[in-house]
Amino acid sequence: MSQVVADLFCRIKQTEHITIDAEFTCKAGEVLAVVGPSGGGKSTLLRMIAGLNKPQSGEIRYGQTSWYCDKKSIQLSPQQRHLGYVPQHFGLFPNLTALENVIAALDHIPKSERAPRAKDWLERVNLHGLPDRLPAHLSGGQRQRVALARALAREPSVLLLDEPFSAVDRETRERLYLELARLKEQLAIPVIMVTHDLNEALLLADNMILISQGKMLQQGHPREVLTRPRDEAVAKQMGLRNIFDAYVIAQEEERQITWLKFGDHLIASTYFESLNVGAKVRWVIPNQGVRFNSIKKGRLCRSFNKLDITIDSMLVMGETVRILASVVGVKHKINAEVPLHLVQKLELVEGGETTVALKSELIHILEAHTE
Amino acid sequence: MDWEALWLSIKLSTVTVVILVPMAILAGRFLAYRQFRGKSWVEALVMVPLVLPPTVIGYYLLVGLGSESWLGQMLEQLLGHQLVFHFSGLVVASIFINIPFAIQPIQRAFEAVPEDVRDAAACCGMSRTKALFKIELPMVWPGVLTAMVLCFSHVLGEFGVVLMMGGNIAGETKTIAISIYDSVQAFDFASAGNMSLVLLLFAITVLALTTSLSRRVGGKHVSSRR
């Protein structure tokens, strides 16, 4: 990329129409995923960055250039921002061929250079031999690639992707993940990708912000947000279902262990410095932190955090099984998704008794609500 | 067969379409894309000529643009002649009465342009004017064509407003519809029949052509709007 690259800073506060309250920076060369449920304001936020919607207040800055600032009454148009934008349904111009679609975004370079550059970008997104096709004659995946080529051929300051994989089938989606992951290595610009799929953020993003009802709940590396959610709202948005109450009964600074009393059970978690002994806490454990034992007890006797459970229900969903189990001595139930082959190997059955071990390094204590 | 009246009708229809349709493209696009307070009132106002009897519209235009009104006097000074009982008056009346026939199909066509496409055009650096000519007009072409045909045919057959506003001056305001009426009044049924047949054949031909053209042009883009 020959263009000057910079970080994108965004601070938006809006209370009218759609509530938005977010502040974040997307560094050059970084993919930032904006994750949240549908109707949570993610696409509106992206449209504000693109200049398609005007925020109520705040600031959007690309490097030292202000794109929007309510205090200075600055509002650059999408044309002035010179960005690449891939809308949810790709927004291809139906009357133009794939090649003409890409050329249409190249007004900023001399006419003679447009066609060669457009062809080059279509090749780079693996669209060989299709430049003369109208969008109506392209598959969903091919359309997505044309839209991506069109956005990138502009040499944009920022690339904005709105639910880029939602309109294609699963097989195409898997292939596009790989292509975008490869393309990401070559891009030196900030890339902001809106998605409601956490897996997409985990696969492709360097950083993520979690948005719910327009409010930014947490920012961080996707895996960190998943394993270290700030509070219960974040944990729930991230799809974590094992959220429980417990009491802090001891703090071992030397061994870096915080001991929790969970019903009749003693649970060791990684050390949380700020907690007082006796405090009531909410803790969470992701699915990968729950390890199942076979029906025959006793094999996990040397593990920490061993819980006896009775399996209440099992629901086979493709290659995984959703298990709901009662923890002996506690009123709570544990949810887990276990691969089908493991369920068969461990001979797990409904009504059966077994043991699970909780990985102490994946136990995370949530911040208390201040509301 | 009153060829002079037929020629005048075709001239009136053409001038009306040429003036009205470009204005309808801008108005239809504005109404399709913009949300504003009082939009439903504006849309209702656009539809008024559709529900009012043409003679009522003709009466208001006659009174409003006649030599007794200040607007009529001002226009007479400006143009050097009265609008009423003049070809230019017929054009004004035809434009006014055809506003809903022009704006409605064009507005609906613009409403069908996906927001994604408009957003992409802006983010590709296109100005609104460039996006209109390069992207949107090729997509809304069937709607524009429908508006053109509706307006042309409607003006060709208009009777009430034309009679009220223009009277019945041969070569100036006597259109084919009025000529048919005149012939019937004079018991010249042969002439009235010939002129009616010409209008009937014209209407069928134009509508058939428009329908097939709309299908061909519209069908090209439908599947890409998914």
Keywords:
heterodimer; A: 371 residues; 21 strands; 24% helix; globular; B: 226 residues; mainly alpha; 11 helices
Characterize the structure shown.
The complex is a heterodimer of chains A (371) and B (226). Chain A has helices spanning 42-50, 78-81, 98-103, 111-124, 140-153, 170-186, 198-204, 222-227, 232-237, 340-345; strands at residues 8-14, 20-26, 31-35, 57-62, 65-69, 74-75, 84-86, 159-162, 191-195, 207-212, 215-220, 243-252, 257-262, 265-270, 280-284, 290-292, 306-317, 320-327, 333-339, 353-358, 364-365. With 371 residues, chain A is α+β, with helices and mostly antiparallel strands. Helices cover 80% and strands 0% of the residues of chain B. Chain B has helices at residues 3-33, 39-51, 54-65, 70-79, 87-97, 99-111, 115-123, 128-157, 160-166, 176-185, 189-222. The N and C termini of chain B lie far apart (51 Å). The interface between A and B is medium-sized, with 33 and 25 residues.
Brief synopsis:
Chain A is α+β, with helices and mostly antiparallel strands. Chain A has helices at 42-50, 78-81, 98-103, 111-124, 140-153, 170-186, 198-204, 222-227, 232-237, 340-345, and strands at 8-14, 20-26, 31-35, 57-62, 65-69, 74-75, 84-86, 159-162, 191-195, 207-212, 215-220, 243-252, 257-262, 265-270, 280-284, 290-292, 306-317, 320-327, 333-339, 353-358, 364-365.
Describe the SSE topology.
The complex is a heterodimer of chains A (371) and B (226).
Chain A: E1 8-14, E2 20-26, E3 31-35, H1 42-50, E4 57-62, E5 65-69, E6 74-75, H2 78-81, E7 84-86, H3 98-103, H4 111-124, H5 140-153, E8 159-162, H6 170-186, E9 191-195, H7 198-204, E10 207-212, E11 215-220, H8 222-227, H9 232-237, E12 243-252, E13 257-262, E14 265-270, E15 280-284, E16 290-292, E17 306-317, E18 320-327, E19 333-339, H10 340-345, E20 353-358, E21 364-365
Parallel strand pairs in A: 3-9, 3-10, 7-8, 8-9
Antiparallel strand pairs in A: 1-2, 1-4, 4-5, 5-6, 10-11, 12-13, 12-15, 13-14, 15-21, 16-20, 17-18, 17-20, 18-19
Chain B: H1 3-33, H2 39-51, H3 54-65, H4 70-79, H5 87-97, H6 99-111, H7 115-123, H8 128-157, H9 160-166, H10 176-185, H11 189-222
Helix pairs in contact in B: 1-5, 1-6, 1-8, 1-10, 2-6, 3-9, 5-9, 6-8, 7-8, 8-11, 10-11
